[in-house]
Amino acid sequence: MISLHVNEKDLQVDVDPETPLLWVLRDHLDLPGTKYGCGVAQCGACVVHLEGEAVRSCVTKVKRAENKKIVTIEGLAENHDHPVQLAWTEIDVPQCGYCHSGQIMSAAVLLKENPNPTDEDIDLAMAGNICRCGTYSRIRKAIHVAAEINKSST
């Protein structure tokens, strides 16, 4: 059994320690918001927070996450009101929407580390997240809006 702390809940899973965290989240814990994109950490669709760091869950072994704080898109904000989620809605970022849980999770870490990012900061931080629909300009705008939401709420 492996002990996990996912979205503020202590859980036990009976899986091979080498299993990618993505499959534990989706298949064993019924948290389908984290998406499978490429399986080789190149697209960013599978980003979750592990101890506050944005990680690619498709290549992160569950043994690395044992007894550590994991946050998925389902646990980012109880009422889906994280500033990034609010900004995503305000700007109407998604087109197909497939990549956006990973985009949002990456953006949330960016804003935690840099509350007032420039366009260059955003482009650099988000470069590993691929959007096949090309909504990059809306993503950048939404991150700026989220930064403003953060400022006004403090």
Distance between the termini: 41 Å
Strand residues, percent: 5-15%
Determine the structural class based on helices, strands and strand pairing: alpha+beta
Strand order of the largest sheet: 2-1-5-3-4
Percentage of residues assigned to helices: 25-40%
Mean pLDDT: 96
Count all strands and give the number. Answer: 5
Shape: globular
Low-confidence segments: none
Number of helices: 6
Order of helices and strands: EEHEEHEHHHH
The whole-angstrom Rg is: 15 Å
Largest sheet: 5 strands, mixed
Structure summary:
This protein has 154 residues and is of the alpha+beta class. It contains six helices and five strands, in the order E-E-H-E-E-H-E-H-H-H-H.
Structure description:
The protein is α+β, with helices and mostly antiparallel strands and about 150 residues long. Helix content is about 40%, strand content about 15%. Strands 2-1-5-3-4 form a 5-stranded mixed β-sheet, with helices on both faces. A hairpin with a 2-residue loop joins strand 1 and strand 2. The protein is globular and about 45 Å long. The N and C termini lie far apart (about 40 Å).
Name some characteristics of this structure.
single chain, 154 residues, alpha+beta, five-stranded mixed β-sheet, 5 strands
